[in-house]
Write a structure and sequence with these properties.
alpha+beta; Bacterial Protein-export protein SecB; 4-stranded antiparallel β-sheet
Length: about 140
């Protein structure tokens, strides 16, 4: 049995993990109005971040919901990071990895899927702002 590698900080954890998969759990778009003349403001996308981990992987999920006057859009996407060897890391290190690396990796997939979902049902697509380093802070 291989001993677990210690990841005392996010830099050590980053050296152990590789992005191995992008998973879409849900992509949905529901038109709520038959009229194509209704053009309303997009108030923004509500994003929930979920983090899961075990001794060889970290999964960072973004769930984005957007309600506009003509539709409801929802996307649930995850980035899966895996290590070839088992590792140990504190919850705070996993959380920091999710904030600094995982969210930044998953965000473009969330944005693209929400835009494409809106286009498919012919409603205005949300324009999502950039996420800047340090902007995302997960609760412990």
């Amino acid at each position: 049995m291989t001993d677990a590698a210690d990841a005392p900080d996010v830099h050590a954890l980053l050296k152990l993990l590789e992005l191995t998969d992008i998973l879409f759990y849900e992509v949905s778009a529901r038109r709520t109005s038959a009229s194509e003349d209704i053009i309303g403001d997009v108030d923004g996308v509500n994003i929930e971040v979920k983090v899961g981990s075990d001794e060889q992987r970290v999964e960072v999920r973004l769930v984005g919901n957007c309600d506009i006057p003509t539709a409801t859009l929802r996307v649930d996407v995850a980035c899966l990071f895996q290590s070839e060897t088992p590792f140990t890391a504190a919850d705070s290190t996993i959380r920091e990895f999710a904030e600094k690396v995982g969210v930044m990796a998953a965000y473009p997939y969330l944005r693209e899927a929400l835009t494409e979902a809106a286009v498919k049902i012919r409603v205005p697509a949300p324009v999502m702002a950039l996420i800047r380093p340090g902007q995302v802070s997960l609760k412990s």
